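We emphasize that the prediction below concerns an isolated chain of 58 residues; any contacts that depend on oligomerization or on bound cofactors are therefore not represented. The input was used exactly as deposited, without trimming of termini.
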Amino acid sequence: MKYVLLLIPCILAIWVPLFNRVEPTLFDIPFFYWYLLCLIPVSSIFIWLASKVEGSDA
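Result of the prediction step, given as a token string:
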């Protein structure tokens, strides 16, 4: 289960057709940039969840 939690943000970051566009913009920032910037805290949440799942298995 923890590997699935770690795999999700990786897939979201490397699946380029998902975010390879300009629209929609957020405060005149293209989607490409704000998607990747939002992915940083989302990835850290998934890493934290994976560590909690790992801790409960031990």
